[in-house]
Amino acid sequence: MITIGLKSNIVLAILISIFGIQCKTKNKEKMEGNNDEKEYSYAVKRSNNSHEINSLWDKEIWNKTKAISIDNYMGDKPSHFPKTKVKLRYDEENIYVIFSVADQYIRAIAKEANGRVWEDSCVEFFFSPGPDTERGYFNFEANCSGVFLFGYHLDNGDTNGFVSIEDRKNIEISHSLKKNVEQESDLPESWTLEYSIPLSMLSNYMKVEKPGTGVSWRANFYKCADKTSHPHWLTWAEIDYPNPKFHLPDFFGRLDFE
Hints:
It is a single chain. The protein is of the alpha+beta class. The chain folds into two domains: 37 residues; 217 residues, Immunoglobulin-like (Sandwich). 18% of the residues lie in helices and 33% in strands. The chain contains four helices and 14 strands. Strands 1, 2, 3, 4, 5, 6, 7, 8, 9, 10, 11, 12, 13 and 14 form a 14-stranded mixed β-sheet that branches.
């Protein structure tokens, strides 16, 4: 009986040892997995001079600028997943943004500023002008015909509004899609959208850290088309949320100004 008990104890000790090793291995893999999570950050280069806003993706200034790919999605993976890229620049006076979209099932119905552009073929830039999102954030959303809305959100979303007409007039915007797509076009087609946002206007709505070396903002970029025949909700920085929703600043990535 003593011998059998001794053998049982030895077997039990071996099993406990093996189980402990397996648990440590799994925990190590989990920790390493967390450390390997993708960080969404983008280095925004400075321009010495302003440039013409004409929606040309291949002009010199943008050829010298790295692109971000918008390749995450919310909801079910869409059957139509338009290849979407965006680039940013800044100078003393403006933030410059350009999108390139290899698209299909394109439509643009919204005609007025601050209309329902997100229901059309649309690209969006959400940003907090500083290293934290507690100050609030802006959302600049534009359809493929260059119609845009420009909103702001404060107090954790309790205070919302649109930038003034006077400020909106100072935004330059250009798009490459020349044909009328009020009736959805199912032909494959690429389009670009470019705009500049004056930095001076942003402080009319919330605290702003002026871009410069060492300054960081929080941001995310989106592509959507809510009411087309092939809706989709694509994001740059991944959003962990069960349903399509872009107004989630906790998931913003980071813009690092050089």
